[in-house]
Design a protein that fits this description.
It holds the Pfam family Rieske. This is Non-heme iron oxygenase ferredoxin subunit. InterPro entries: Rieske_2Fe-2S (IPR017941), Rieske_2Fe-2S_sf (IPR036922). Keywords: 2Fe-2S, Iron, Iron-sulfur, Metal-binding, Plasmid. This protein has 104 residues and is an all-beta fold. The protein has one domain: Rieske Iron-sulfur Protein (3-layer Sandwich). 0% of the residues lie in helices and 48% in strands. It has strands at residues 4-9, 17-23, 26-33, 36-41, 55-57, 62-64, 71-73, 79-81, 90-91, 93-96, 99-103. Strands 2-3-4-9 form a 4-stranded antiparallel beta sheet, with no helix packed on it. The chain has a 4-stranded antiparallel beta sheet with strand order 5-6-7-8, with no helix packed on it. The termini are close together. The structure holds FE2/S2 (inorganic) cluster.
Length: 104
Amino acid sequence: TLTWTELCAADAVGDGAHKAFFIGTKRLCAVNHGGVFHVVDDLCTHGVAYLSDGYLDTDECVLECPLHGGLFSYHDGCPKGDPAEKPVRSYETRIVDGVVMVAL
Ligand code: FES
């Protein structure tokens, strides 16, 4: 079952920006695209690099890994460009009273 957990204030990430957050030891990358939040695991599945340190492309809806340029959809975590092969996990989100909640 999903546990809705507080991630951050909805104004903690600007529209068109992305940022890392921790829930316990879990490191997540939150993307704000047009006021809608998308959350995926921050650690790349290809190597040791964080997607929150890379480029956010809101036209293609992808995060680009800063280490080798692998691309991941921030909607579902699916790999969208080499050398990314395995998806990063993605999480459902919702905003309640100005707080971004994530389903873990
Ligand atoms: Fe992310 Fe290689 S570590 S693409």
